[in-house]
Amino acid sequence: MSSIRLFILSSFVEFGPMHGHKLRLEADRKRVPLWTDIPVGAVYGAMKRMASEGLLREAGQEKEGNRPTRKLYEITDIGRKVLDELRDQALVDIWFRYDPFDLALTKAKPIDSVAFTELLADRLERMQALLTERSTMIEGALPYVGVAEEWALRHSEHRLAAEVAYLTDLLAAVPAIVEDELNPRPRKEKILGKGRREAASRKRRI
User: Fold this and answer.
1) Which CATH class is domain 3-92?
2) What's the rounded Cα separation, in Å, for the pair 143 and 43?
3) Does the CA dihedral 54-55-59-62 come out positive or negative?
4) Closest CA to 116 of 167, 50, 187
5) Which of 106, 122, 140, 141 shows the shortest CA–CA distance to 31?
6) Where are the domains of the chain?
7) Mean pLDDT by groups of 10 residues along the chain of 206 residues
8) Which of 34, 39, 153, 172 has the fewest CB atoms inside 10 Å of its own CB, making it the most exposed?
9) Residues 82, 50: contact at Cβ < 8 Å?
10) What's the predicted TM-score (pTM) here?
């Protein structure tokens, strides 16, 4: 799903015909980079691509004072249809990505609880700092955004808070992790593997 397409098309529905510079100003005003993956400078190129696809069309020109004449665009019927599809898809689809940290955790093989604890404690401290920074940023942005935008901003805050809670629990589990590395508990896969080997051995004897 393309976030920048969703933003651009919805902005044209909201504000009507406009040029790329005005769209960029709206993105800045709404603090879009704070709660989306959209680089504001990318709107110009995206608008041109969408115009070539028939989602936008030229709607005249605009000249203000001594500024250069700017080309205006507006959304097409096809663009409105695509917007509805993108919006519905974004609200329904669930995005989940595995964190490389999890793989690294299973390969860490910690035998020194002190060193492992220090490593995780440092990560927790940095995550807490990131959460604090994010919360401060959100509070500063609130006067400039609506309620829906506020909750879009708070989504990342809640995610970071969940990471902090997870790392706090993980730190408490360090002794058990280290003990399991030194004296591994029985794994179901290993037990099943042993049973299969014994069954195969009996079959060969028969």
Assistant:
1) mainly alpha
2) 24
3) negative
4) 167
5) 141
6) 3-92, 100-202
7) 87 94 87 79 90 96 84 96 94 88 88 88 97 93 89 94 97 91 76 54 59
8) 172
9) no
10) 0.67
